[in-house]
Structure formats: structure tokens, C-alpha cells
Design a protein that fits this description.
250 residues; mainly alpha; 13 helices; 0% strand
Amino acid sequence: LQDEETRKDYDYMLDHPEEYYRHYYHYYSRRLAPKVDVRIVILVTVCAISVFQFFSWWSSYNEAINYLATVPKYRIQATEIARQQGLLNKTKEKGKNRRSKEEIREEEEEIIKDIIKNKIDIKGGYQKPKIYDILLFQILLFPFYLCKYIVWYGWWIYCFTIKGQEYGVEEKLYIIRRYMKMSQSQFDSLEDHQKETFLERQLWIRENYEVYKREQEEELKKKMAMDPRWKRYRRWMKNEGPGRLTFIDD
């Protein structure tokens, strides 16, 4: 009875001995309650998820760099830049510092990958990870992001709803992205000529976007109709689709 809460329960039991089910419940709920602070458990869980996120993103980023190093377009450009900067000449040293062909090849590969990292802006899900994007920092910075969004939304309402100003390029692209239901990283991964097409067709206007959306759906249907794999799939669904039982001998 050293705990204040248990003393209250004990005094209540003395005053109300007939409520024995309630006494049993409070007794076992306190005996079986976890001893670890829930806040510590949540903090450790968030930290573990954040560490996993960061290393997972680094792995995806390195995979993207390794893939781009095998693409002839980027590899030739990176090799040319390395030659202009004299980086490849340093790998072919003579005399006592002479190395094997395998060591030279590995060093040249690292040089090409470093140039690709510095010269190519990878966007989307394979972009270079940033520590502020992990869950822990997102939770800590949530009040800041919320205030920033409220200020931005108020500015949007004042400029374009109340004053009736015309949209700029960034505002038009923002509206288009919202219509397409794409995240910022997904939209940033699009090619520049695609964004220019969006602006030329004035897709920030809802009616224009609906026309564009129907055109894309029709084009996708045509591609699927001409795709041999989809033809085989439709033929299989028609003749041997799921749910059919056949007794044909192999």
C-alpha cells in the first residue's frame, strides 16, 4: 500500500466490500500493467523506423546510381567529363605505383559513379536521401510544416481568390499536380518537356484537364489492345479464365 492509487483502491474496498468484481479488476490491472513507460516505447519505435527508412533510401539511391552507370547515355557523358578533368589519367600510373587492371577498372568505375552522383539530379523514389525526410524529423517538424501550410494557404486565398490575380508557372503546375493526384516527388520526376506540354495545354483549367485525361485513357486502351501480352491475357480469360475446371489430359 505504498502507492497512492492502491491506497485509494484499498479504502474504496473497505467502504464497498460488495463490489468484489471491481476490486479484482483493479488489482490485476495494476499487477499486470506494463512497467515500461509507453512514451519510451513509442520513441524507440519511431527511431527504429527512421533508421530503417534512412538506410533503405540509401540502398535505393545506390541501386539507381549503379543502374545509371550501366546506361550508355550517362556512362559516355560521365567518362568524357572524367577525361576532361584528368581523373582517368591518374588511375594509369606507372612504375612502383603501377596497379593491376582489376584495381584500375574498379577505381574508374567509382570515378564514373561519383560524376553521375554530382552531375545527375535523381528525382522521385530513388533520389538522394535527406535526413529531414525520415519519420522522426517529420514528427518533430510537423508544427513548423503545419504553420507554414496555414500561412501559404492564407496567401493563396488572398492572392487568387480575393484579389483575383493570375496564376504563375509554379501555381499552375501545383494545380495540375493536384488534379493528377501525384506527390511532389512523383511530379518532380517527370521530364521537363512533359511539364511544358501541361502548360501549353492549360491543364490547370479543369475542363482542359478532363479532356486530357480522357485522351490518355483512350491512348492507354489502344496500347493495351495492341500489346501481345494483353492479347494473350484476354484470350486466356475468355477460354481458360479463373474459376473454370477442365479435365483435359496433359
